[in-house]
Amino acid sequence: MSSLLNVLKDKLSGKNVRIVLPEGEDVRVLSAAVELQASDYVAPVVLGNQDNIKKLAEEEGLNIEGIEVIQPDTSDLKAELVEKFVERRKGKATEEQAQELLNNVNYFGTMLVYAGKADGLVSGAAHSTADTVRPALQIIKTKPGVSRTSGVFFMIKEDKQYLFGDCAINPELAASDLAEIAIESAKTAQSFGMEPKVAMLSFSTKGSAKSDDTEKVVQAVELAQEKIDSENLTDVVVDGEFQFDAAIVPEVAKKKAPGAKIQGDANVFIFPSLEAGNIGYKIAQRLGGFDAVGPVLQGLNSPVNDLSRGCSSEDVYNLSIITAAQSLQ
Ligand SMILES: CC(C)(COP(=O)(O)OP(=O)(O)OC[C@H]1O[C@@H](n2cnc3c(N)ncnc32)[C@H](O)[C@@H]1OP(=O)(O)O)[C@@H](O)C(=O)NCCC(=O)NCCS
């Protein structure tokens, strides 16, 4: 974990990247903001009620001097952001609805990013994934060529680092979605210094079982390869369908998938469904002792990332560093 963060911190040093933390009234978030403010890596922009935040800081002995704190409902920026929101939503929100929505810290914070007044956002310590992510999907939207955002976790233990996706966003996935997520995850892995070997996971290895679900993964591998060829992504390897052991244990790969491009050395794992991905990363975290960093959302025009509600102040700090690094890409 610390080696990944150290590389990112080097990149961020002196860049003054502004990350919005909408949940400033949560002590974990405010503590992380104080630590970020004291660092040279990220300038936090904290949202919430000014009085509540002051009181919390006093109670917890946190020095918030110098931290930018914005209260959405009384902010000078609100009128401008309301106007931009109505324009962005093109008939999907009236001005009255926008006035109301922009009192919500996640909508206000996401608008700060959209309007270029901040570089990224980290929320979710006190909000569900859906409430954190929805404003980003509606306002920031996906990059050209990406049809859906997805959420990956960096799974880190000692010198081992893997990427797991989609563990956070898409309840329904077609083969074409899985292929897109594989390619986006490979690009995310590359941008964090990994050489992606992407395993498309299933309960079957190279035809050992057959069902609609396994066929979907087989088709996803073909579609991902087509994307690799058309985008000339020469440094990306995708193969499957694999059971997890065939993707990660060389001896098993030799037996179950002798001709495969990945021989037990996969480092990016694409799960066939959100259920599998979400359960899978938590097993690695809780039984395997891996640190799970994320979900890091990929495919958006600007980075917005979601915390778990069980997160610590350190998690808020770390995800802010990762989000800031994404904003430089
Ligand atoms: C992500 C999620 C919140 C979107 O749900 P939703 O708001 O009901 O989705 P909607 O279909 O109403 O779409 C809302 C907007 O987001 C967009 N959208 C939805 N899913 C998207 C995706 N995966 N990527 C990009 N945009 C997406 C829609 O196009 C729509 O945009 P529009 O309003 O401009 O037309 C929902 O899929 C969800 O709850 N996923 C599971 C999250 C979760 O609980 N994960 C487990 C814990 S980590």
UniProtKB/TrEMBL annotation:
Key words of the record: Acyltransferase, Transferase
Report the pathway entry.
Metabolic intermediate biosynthesis; acetyl-CoA biosynthesis; acetyl-CoA from acetate: step 2/2
UniProt keyword annotation of rRNA processing present: no
Question: Does the entry feature the keyword Acyltransferase, yes or no?
Answer: yes
Cited SUPFAM superfamilies: Isocitrate/Isopropylmalate dehydrogenase-like
Domain (Phosphate acetyl/butaryl transferase) spans 5-324
Identify the EC number(s).
2.3.1.8
Q: Which GO terms describe its molecular function?
A: phosphate acetyltransferase activity
Q: Give the reactions, separated by semicolons, that this protein catalyses.
A: acetyl-CoA + phosphate = acetyl phosphate + CoA
InterPro entries, alphabetically? P_Ac_Bu_trans, P_AcTrfase, P_AcTrfase_dom1, P_AcTrfase_dom2, Phos_Acetyltrans/Butyryltrans, PTA_PTB
Instruction: List, in alphabetical order, the GO biological process terms annotated in this UniProt record.
Output: acetyl-CoA biosynthetic process
User: Which top-rank group of organisms is this from?
Assistant: Bacteria
Q: Which Pfam families match?
A: PTA_PTB (PF01515)
Query: What family name appears in the similarity comment?
Result: Belongs to the phosphate acetyltransferase and butyryltransferase family.
**Name of the molecule in the record:** Phosphate acetyltransferase
Source species of the chain: Staphylococcus rostri
Origin organism lineage: Bacteria, Bacillati, Bacillota, Bacilli, Bacillales
